[in-house]
What we know:
Low-confidence stretches: none
Largest sheet: 4 strands, antiparallel
Distance between the termini: 52 Å
Radius of gyration: 22 Å
Helix content: 55-70%
Amino acid sequence: MSYTGRTKLTICETKPEKGCELSLLSAIVHTCSTLSRSNGGTRLTLTSSNEALHEFVFGLLSSLELGADLSLERSGRDTVVVSGAMELLRCVRIIDVDSKGNLSFVRGIAKELVDTESKRVAYLKGVFLGAGSFSPSAWHLEIGVSDFSYAAAVEKLISGFDMSAHVFGRKDKYIVYIKRREDICSFFGYLGATGVMLELLETLNRNKTKKSSSGTTNLEVSNLMRTIDVSVEQIEAIKLIEEKKGLSFLGDKLYEVARLRLGDAELSYDDIAAKLGISKGSVKYRLKKLMSIAESLKNSS
């Protein structure tokens, strides 16, 4: 079984700490569920290939007693909330309902779900269960989510444990990832996957003799992180322009660069320049101009 599978199985086999069940469930629902409407009403579908996770979610829902209207069924790889889906989302603090009955999604992570260290650990377990994976050959741990504000909140949560996390865009997702090897070992330790952590530490210690190649790798990772961080800032600026004015507001030259950057955070300046047949300097100038436009729109609002 893979490191990812073993870690998820370990979490599912461990009874959640009392008072942390809601944090754990909220993170799972947030990271691996979809909401849909049909003639039968609103349905929430949790999808995972991990069989243990489905049983784990059923157990959490039963122990929390979130409402008599909650009705579940299993359908292949899915756990479907047939009725009571909106009430479940409200209970796990993914949506808010105001005094007039208006619904709104909570941005990021609700504070009451992570206001103690135990709840923060439980929430990390939930996000890894729902959307986490680890590649041992690349020493790359990631959690894929669909919303940038939520990705930023998960990054902040991980960083609060003195681990270095980063965010970048990949197609229609935002990836929260950990690349530093010691931090990956620590992350598995916090999740309670002690066996996995010890195996990785042993591998890490064996590789410490290869300092020269490790130094090169660390430099490459550092450069990649800086590039991705800048790209995410550029994407957020372009999204702000799109929200406030629409991308048609831009001239053709700026629109072309904005479209390419919005589509892929990992494209380098050289990649964009090659696709558009312009110089690298022109790409930098146009992206800087987009950042300036976004800043002006932000200050005027």
